[in-house]
Amino acid sequence: MAKMTLEELRKLRDSKKTELRKRDAEGKNTRVIVGMGTCGIAAGARETFNAMASKASELGLENIKFVTAGCMGSCYAEPTVEVQIPGQASILYGYVSADKGVEIVEKHLKNGELVENLIIGQPFEKA
Fold first, then answer.
1. What is the residue-wise DSSP string for 14-68?
2. Which residues contact 57 (CB under 8 A, 6 or more apart)?
3. Model pTM score
4. Sign of torsion, CA 37 40 46 50?
5. How far apart are CA 106 and CA 32, in angstroms?
6. What is the chain's mean pLDDT, rounded?
7. Residue 88 phi, psi (nearest 5)
8. Residue 60 and residue 38: Cα distance in Å, rounded?
9. Side-chain half-sphere CA neighbours of 81 within 13 A
10. Up-side HSE of residue 61: CA atoms within 13 Å toward CB?
11. Is 18 exposed, middle or buried (0-12, 13-18, 19+ CB in 10 A)?
């Protein structure tokens, strides 16, 4: 291994600190998971994902991470969206069109109000 200068070591340290801070923040972020299995995409999940992410950005909501997943096991209710807020039970929404996704952002993510008529349950927890 080649020797590093003091300046190179400082740069390496700073970059690793930044990586660790990002990783630590991951557990504090709200996660919105949109099912993008074949049936989800066919039912409009891509449009739902885009509409929700755009609305959250428009509202200036920070610390929300939008991610996609494959099959979420509720094909009958596609598109499905799971909302995971740290310290709260996850909520699984079904039949989430782009318009309904915007409603979830405005009510649940911004104001903390559940969109009761779209809830299909809580996701299965592995033992």
1. HHHHHHHHHHHHHTTSEEEEEE-SHHHHHTTHHHHHHHHHHHHHHTT--SEEEEE
2. none
3. 0.76
4. negative
5. 13
6. 88
7. -125, 160
8. 31
9. 36
10. 25
11. exposed
Can you read off the two tokens belonging to residue 99?
């318009």
CA atoms within 13 A on the CB side of 1: 3
Dist. CA 36–CA 60, nearest whole Å = 25
Identify which has the larger pLDDT, 22 or 113.
Answer: 113
Find the range with the poorest average confidence among 23-37, 63-77, 83-97, 102-116: 23-37
Confidence at residue 14, expressed as pLDDT on a 0 to 100 scale: 82
Token pair 């909302």 is at which residue?
83
Residue 90 CB neighbour total at 10 angstroms: 15
> CA quadruple 75, 78, 83, 89: dihedral positive or negative?
negative
Dist CA 19 CA 13 (whole Å)? 10
Q: Which helix (H) or strand (E) segment is 84 a member of?
A: strand 81-84
